[in-house]
Design a protein that fits this description.
The chain has 471 residues and is an alpha/beta fold. 32% of the residues lie in helices and 24% in strands. The protein folds into three domains: 83 residues, MurE/MurF, N-terminal domain (Udp-n-acetylmuramoylalanyl-d-glutamate--2,6- Diaminopimelate Ligase, Chain: A, domain 1); 215 residues, Mur-like, catalytic domain (UDP-N-acetylmuramoyl-L-alanine:D-glutamate ligase, 3-Layer(aba) Sandwich), CATH 3.40.1190.10; 149 residues, Alpha-Beta Complex (Protein-Tyrosine Phosphatase, Chain A), CATH 3.90.190.20. The protein has 15 helices and 25 strands. Helix 4 packs parallel to helix 9, helix 11 runs parallel beside helix 12 and helix 14 packs across helix 15.
């Protein structure tokens, strides 16, 4: 596609230089190939304009920048806010794939991943090919790629959606984070269904205020031209307005309401009207995730009995209360819980069903909202019988200081062990456990790496736990 054609009807740009053929798009100078259009975008920590010469050296045919440079020989597209046009240009380049599939966007503080897998499982079970872009992985038919972000950049999204369309997907499910919405990573995807799971105070290190966090979430529903599905039991549900149709789900109230809810070690069960549902997911919070998927099916016109039968075969999500299989008879679970709210949810789910001690291994991420740390300590101190505080992803912060911040949340330090080495912490927990106990390894879930200030190393809680169990 020619540069002039790509830029047509996009407001707020000025094109300088000759028309050239564009063979690809990139926001990262390291991935630029000959013929690419490079977006010199300003990010939270990097200014893309510093890498323009690198992009040109790698063969960029043209650049998009916020300031014209007369010393650059290749064509330039000038735009005051480069990030605002990445999505529109990428959508045009890939032929607006989101308009050719039923797009489902899912947002909320918690539950996005599980809900996205439930929705995809439901659609696939009912013979509706569905792709997925989310926190754990990206799924395009039989192909799967591990993810690095909850919501990927705009170019990646449009490229993958094009792949899904070409491979015959009728639906695509996207986890949509507040960061992704605020940074225009899902612009201008055409959403047919938007789902709101819940909202709690989080990511204030980025959004600064709760109002801004809520406003970022609201954008998904303003982008939706079809049906909005919301958790009616959330006090923030009324803020999520948009679409042509609204379906509310809940346990306390809602158009689709779960009754006779039972949560135990085998999973969850509930009734909608006179239809009984059973899923192998633990915790009351997963009832809400299931309700969102059920509402998706109801909105598409499917009977509750068909939806029930499809969800019966759902076998869970990587890193979400994932059981680590072993021959020792020990109960070891991996979960992504990395905030006070989510850790409390998981621990209160496990506490009533444990016959012995509830042992939790957890840390807190560096360069994230510091308030998470003592709140996680409070949750562990209130519900766990033994807590082993360790390193999560410290990033640029001191792991020892993060652990000290976590300890401030404990009323008593008698049942707390600090072990900075995460592998040793997991070994300790498993070594202390009996068959009556439950060991919860929290914070990283599906993640495959651990991030320090000077290095990133491979680290998979599931594999480490399995190694410890084998020994």
């Amino acid at each position: 596609m020619k540069l002039k054609q790509l830029c047509q009807k996009i407001v707020g740009i000025d094109r300088k230089g000759k028309d050239v053929a564009i063979l690809g798009l990139s926001e990262d100078s390291r991935t630029v190939a000959p013929g690419f259009l490079f977006f010199a975008k300003k990010g939270a920590s990097q200014d893309g304009s510093k890498f323009i010469l690198d992009a040109i050296q790698n063969g960029a045919a043209a650049i998009v920048t916020d300031l014209y440079d007369p010393f650059i020989s290749i064509p330039q597209v000038i735009c005051k806010d480069v990030s605002s046009i990445v999505g529109p240009i990428a959508a045009k380049y890939y032929g607006y794939p989101s308009t050719k599939m039923h797009m489902v966007g899912i947002t909320g503080t918690k539950g996005k991943t599980t809900t996205s897998y439930l929705v995809r499982h439901l659609l696939e079970s009912l013979k509706k090919p569905c792709g997925l872009i989310g926190t754990v992985e990206t799924l395009v038919k039989e192909h799967r790629f591990f993810s690095t972000h909850t919501t990927h950049d705009a170019i990646f999204n449009q490229k993958i959606l094009k792949e899904m369309q070409v491979k015959g997907c009728a639906f695509a499910v996207l986890e949509v984070s507040s960061h992704g919405l605020d940074q225009k990573r899902v612009d201008p995807i055409s959403f047919d269904t938007a789902i709101f799971t819940n909202l709690h105070s989080d990511h204030l290190d980025y959004h600064q205020t709760l109002d801004r966090y809520v406003a970022a979430k609201q954008k998904l529903f303003q982008m939706c031209h079809g049906t909005v599905i919301v958790n009616a039991d959330s006090p923030f549900s009324s803020f999520m307005q948009g679409g042509k149709k609204r379906l509310e789900v809940g346990i306390e109230k809602g158009d689709i309401q779960a009754k006779e809810v039972v949560c135990n070690s085998q999973g969850i069960s509930f009734k909608i009207d006179d239809v009984s549902f059973e899923l192998p997911l633990m915790g009351r919070f997963n009832v809400y995730n299931a309700l969102s998927a059920i509402a998706m099916g109801v909105n598409l016109g499917w009977p509750l009995l068909s939806i029930r039968d499809a969800l019966k075969t759902f076998d869970g999500v990587p890193g979400r209360l994932e059981k680590v299989s072993n021959t020792k008879g020990l109960n070891v679970l991996i979960d992504y819980a990395h905030t006070g709210e989510s850790l409390e949810n998981v621990l209160t789910t496990l506490k009533p069903i444990v016959k012995g001690k509830l042992i939790v291994v957890f840390g807190a991420g560096g360069n994230r909202d510091p308030a998470r740390r003592h709140l996680m300590g409070e949750a562990a101190g209130a519900y766990a019988d033994l807590s082993i505080v360790t390193t999560d992803n410290p990033r640029k912060e001191d792991p020892e200081q993060i652990c000290k911040d976590i300890l401030k949340g404990f009323c008593s330090k008698n049942q707390v062990i600090v072990e900075l080495d995460r592998k040793k912490a997991i070994e300790t927990a498993i070594g202390l456990a009996t068959s009556k106990d439950i060991v919860l390894i929290a914070g990283k879930g599906h993640e495959k790496v651990q991030i320090f200030k000077d290095r990133t190393v491979h680290f998979d809680d599931v594999l480490v736990a399995k190694e410890c169990l084998m020994r």
